[in-house]
Amino acid sequence: MKITDTYAKVFTQGCKLLKSISFFEIEGTVSDSFLKHLGTNCHLLESFNCANNGSSVNNVGDDAMKMFASGCPLLRTFRFPWHTINMQGMRSLVEYCPLIITLEVGACLITDECLEEIGKLHNTLVDLDLSWSADITDEGIASLFQNAFHLLEECCDLLTDASCTSIANACPKLKSVYLTGDEEDISLLGLICLLDKCKGLINLEASLPMPSVIENELKRRKNGVGKE
């Protein structure tokens, strides 16, 4: 489907009590106009889930993100992959939507500066997806996790052993991790650090071959053995 500005205006004006909205495999990307209409009309919105088909990436304007976020303060789930969000836009989202527990911003060209803003959600975030974020570095990951994320259970996209250490130290309740680093970047030591610090970790997926010692430990945990 394709979301036109006319559709966005009529839809949001007619659904002012809407709490959840999901669009999948939309044609193109969500426009700034649609975000502004949501912020103007849908003040009870708690879940926003919108993914295009990955054929293009839209640069979301700062004004649009601010209007959307300030108008939807009850937002708890924000899934918005393949839509570029810069630092100012992320700052608005974090500032006006402090209740967010699920943040999926894969392929959003997230930068280290954006990670600083995301780090302010350390008291609420449970699920964080940063996949396809080629511009973030170990320093950005360290900045993101400088505070303890006591509720975070799922995280996607770590870079190197240093990133593994940062998240292991900050996220004791982590249950699932999806690693996209290369084999030369993430070693057995990095994986062991995650398992050692995150006693509830049972799902560990990676683009690199998984050592048998790690696979065996994960199997033991899934079977209820070795958990604290």
Task: Explain this structure.
The protein has 228 residues and is α/β, with parallel strands linked by helices. The protein folds into 2 domains: 1-109, Leucine-rich repeat, LRR (right-handed beta-alpha superhelix) (Alpha-Beta Horseshoe), CATH 3.80.10; 137-228, Rossmann fold, CATH 3.40.50. Helices cover 37% and strands 16% of the residues. It is built from 9 helices and 10 strands. The chain has helices spanning 5-14, 32-41, 62-71, 87-96, 112-118, 138-144, 161-170, 188-197, 212-222, and strands at 20-26, 47-52, 58-59, 77-79, 83-84, 102-104, 127-129, 154-156, 176-179, 203-206. Strands 1-2-4-6-7-8-9-10 form an 8-stranded parallel sheet, with no helix packed on it. Strands 3-5 form a two-stranded parallel ribbon. Helix 8 (188-197) links the parallel strand 9 (176-179) and strand 10 (203-206). It is elongated and about 55 Å long. The model has no long low-confidence stretch (mean pLDDT 88).
